[in-house]
Please model this.
Amino acid sequence: MRKGPAIAVTTLLLCGSARAGEPIDSWAQMRAALVGCWTVPAGTEGSVMAFRFLFAPDGGLRGPPRLMARILKGDEAARKAYEASAYAALDRCLPLALTPHFKAIMGETLVQLRFVNTPREPALNLGSAITIFAEETRRP
Model:
């Protein structure tokens, strides 16, 4: 998997891994796991990264994610950190433990995932179309 810019992405993420715990059995559970793996860098308001990818049977990616959109805001360091944080969220979460039931539902479904640091707006979160807003990642 592509690691993004040459930044030590492990220092960007402080959340726990989604690899542990109960196996994922729905798109909503998958989305919740991905929310928990993304840490949004400061100074990146207005930034967006969007990917498309397929899952492999083991819950990892079938090949590298395809970058569909990249809008990076902030100074150079912030832009690099935002890009790295989106790739790192995938690295941190995957592979996901998936139930046999959910694997059958997913099949060959193309996942469209957006990491968005803008004010929350109505977004299509149906099945494999997943949008994660930065405000969702704020932890108490």
Summary: The helical segments are 27-37, 76-93, 100-106.
